[in-house]
Amino acid sequence: MQATIADIRRGDRFTRLTGRGGTYIAVRAAKVTASGRVRVWVVEDHGQTVDDDGVMELADTGRMITPAADTPVEIHDRALPVRHSADEPEFTDEPNVHLGGKTDRELKASELRRRIPEVIGKISDLGSERDLLVRQGISAGISVIELAEMTDLSRARIYQIRDGRR
Questions:
Q1: Is 132 exposed, middle or buried (0-12, 13-18, 19+ CB in 10 A)?
Q2: pLDDT, tens only, 99-140
Q3: Residue 89 has what DSSP assignment?
């Protein structure tokens, strides 16, 4: 479908027909600036595929392109479900439905449901490791005051860790 760069939306796979050319996948929707230029965060299309969860993982760091708003493009695919690791995408209330009927908001919620327990588990593991190191530090003769300064914990908390009350 022929269009202009200003028509690009998140997840669109498109080719610039003038200028530097190239085929890209839009990480974010195009935004027209006051100067009449367009800003679009893109990754180059390397034939990425959709993962098991129905979302295309874009590991490439991508880049910002800023062509004139009337730059012609050929849009090959519209609103592909994308996730970009280097630049957390914007999620809006506008109904941008992807494969499987999921909106951006639903995709974001699904991603957060997966990530939150993972991060909480890491935090718990790190807290346990910190407590072990504090106990080992006390056993090795490091003062409670020094441990409190190193860990940014209160002396009372250091004593609680030492005594197994934490």
A1: exposed
A2: 455 666 777 787 888 888 888 888 888 888 999 999 999 999
A3: P
Residues 89 and 145 both lie in one domain: no
Residue 78 lies in a domain: yes
Q: What is the spatial distance between Cα 134 and Cα 142, in angstroms, rounded to a whole number? A: 9
> Where is the domain boundary, 72, 102, 132?
102
d(CA 100, CA 54): 8
Q: How far is CA 4 from CA 35, 67, 134, 162, in A?
A: 16, 10, 60, 65
Cut 0.85: pTM above it: no
Is the confidence at residue 161, as pLDDT, over 90? yes
Higher pLDDT: 13 or 61? It is 13
The answer to whether residues 17 and 96 belong to one domain is yes
Question: Beta strands 56-58 and 82-84: pairing type?
Answer: parallel
Q: Which tokens is 63 given?
A: 């880049």
Tell me which residue range forms the domain holding 139. 113-162
The model's pLDDT over 23-50, given as tens digits with 9 standing for 90+, comes to: 888 887 888 888 888 888 788 877 666 6
62 domain-assigned: yes
Pair (71, 128) in one structural domain: no
